[in-house]
Predict the structure.
Amino acid sequence: MRLRDRVQPKDQIVLAVNERMSYIYTLDTNTLAINKLVQELENDKRIDVIAWQEGASIKVKSGEKKENFIIEKAES
């Protein structure tokens, strides 16, 4: 399925959705910070896992168990 419209300058988020998971990208972190978006998603009982990138780390939260962990990028 092709997008009908391209991303516009006024857009705040982009959704990439399939049958098993969704990716949500925040385009304007000044207006919609990723941590605020994560807090909103945590309140949705349909969401099992939330993961996002902060710097070189990937942070992961469980939507059901209120647990989280951080994946650090290994030094090469």
User: Anything to note?
Assistant: The mean pLDDT is 81. The radius of gyration is 14 Å. The beta strands are 13-17, 22-26, 49-54, 57-62, 68-72.
